[in-house]
């Protein structure tokens, strides 16, 4: 599981005076779904294109499946949906895949296998132009799956899809990883990354700000406690956890949920009225906002 499928060192791409990707060191491990997460213009597509050898880095290196990014021997083992796939509108989905399979000298059987995996077998005979956006995206993934690649690179695979299309794309990605394939996908959707990725790399303005598991990124779970008087509650809570803040009149306590009953007992023993205790986990969105703006998650009040 710890074998590195992708490793970059100081990967940099400059367009004129603009640094699109700035000294990125990222690692993707075999068998994982890696989420490359960042706002529009952060440098995700540029990085993926360098990993696929579609553009050359200005400096730095990228090793993919043990070889140089973009080398023919490596590309044979990668499937990618990075630029919109160039399908022929009047050919059926199946015939479009047949063309690709023939070009790559793959046996015909891989076409139906790929259609099956993306749940398009029943509509494989329909013309590409008659496909919904979701079906077009799925066909793009099917094209990436031809030849059973070890690494699948998907640039914003759910972009433009409706909620049902997004859900089906997410479950497809999860299935691919279950089948042993490594998936590197980019996204600006935090919830999506939180739901399906094992590890994430957070990129903003060309810099990789952090690379870790989603759980590590979210940190210790928090309890959100509505209790009064707040100053008394704060004093009690600080005996349980170092990290306690007051937010919108409630305490946010960095404490495992199983310790909630003990905290409540102690609050009550100190004549504090406990109105509610909820899980107050930070979302990936909060963490992301903090990282990319360097600001606080929310307005914090100070209580003396
Ligand atoms: N060929 C190019 N010439 C000049 N600037 C470019 C070129 N390609 C990308 N850029 C710039 O590099 C930066 C990173 O772009 P990139 O497409 O990699 O971002 P992204 O994270 O994929 O964003 P999006 O989600 O919008 O696709 C942007 O500021 C973009 O305008």
UniProtKB/TrEMBL annotation:
A single GO molecular function term of this UniProt record: ATP binding
Record's keyword terms, sorted: ATP-binding, Nucleotide-binding, Transport
Cited Gene3D superfamilies: P-loop containing nucleotide triphosphate hydrolases
Transport among keywords: yes
Coiled-coil regions, chain positions: none
InterPro entries: AAA+_ATPase, ABC_transporter-like_ATP-bd, ABC_transporter-like_CS, P-loop_NTPase
Keyword Coiled coil: no
One Pfam assignment: ABC_tran
Domain ABC transporter: residue ranges: 6-230
Signal sequence extent: none
Top-rank lineage group of the source organism: Bacteria
Recorded family membership: Belongs to the ABC transporter superfamily.
Protein name in the entry: ABC transporter ATP-binding protein
Organism: Ornithinimicrobium faecis
């Amino acid at each position: 599981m710890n074998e590195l499928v992708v490793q970059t060192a100081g990967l940099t791409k400059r367009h004129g005076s603009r640094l699109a990707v700035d000294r990125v060191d990222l690692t993707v491990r075999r068998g994982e779904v890696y989420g490359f997460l960042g706002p529009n213009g952060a440098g995700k597509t540029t990085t993926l294109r360098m990993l696929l050898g579609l553009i050359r880095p200005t400096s730095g290196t990228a090793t993919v499946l043990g070889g140089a990014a973009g080398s023919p021997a490596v590309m044979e083992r990668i499937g990618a949906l990075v630029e919109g796939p160039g399908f022929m509108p009047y050919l059926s989905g199946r015939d479009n895949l047949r063309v690709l399979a023939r070009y790559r000298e793959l046996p015909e059987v891989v076409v139906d296998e790929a259609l099956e995996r993306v749940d398009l077998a029943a509509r494989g005979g329909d013309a590409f132009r008659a496909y919904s956006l979701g079906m077009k995206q799925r066909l793009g993934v099917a094209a990436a799956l031809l030849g059973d690649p070890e690494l699948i690179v998907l640039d914003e695979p759910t972009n433009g899809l409706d909620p049902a299309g997004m859900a089906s794309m997410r479950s497809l990605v999860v299935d691919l990883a279950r089948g042993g394939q490594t998936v590197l996908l980019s996204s600006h959707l935090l919830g999506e990354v939180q739901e399906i990725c094992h590890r994430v790399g957070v990129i903003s303005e060309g810099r990789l700000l952090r690379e870790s598991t989603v759980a590590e990124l979210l940190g210790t779970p928090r309890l959100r406690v509505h209790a009064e008087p707040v100053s008394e509650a704060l004093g009690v809570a600080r005996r349980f956890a170092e990290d306690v803040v007051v937010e919108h009149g409630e305490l946010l306590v960095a404490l495992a949920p199983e310790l909630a009953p003990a905290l409540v007992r102690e609050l009550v023993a100190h004549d504090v009225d406990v109105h509610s205790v909820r899980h107050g986990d930070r979302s990936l969105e909060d963490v992301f906002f903090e990282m990319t703006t360097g600001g606080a998650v929310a307005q914090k009040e100070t209580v003396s």
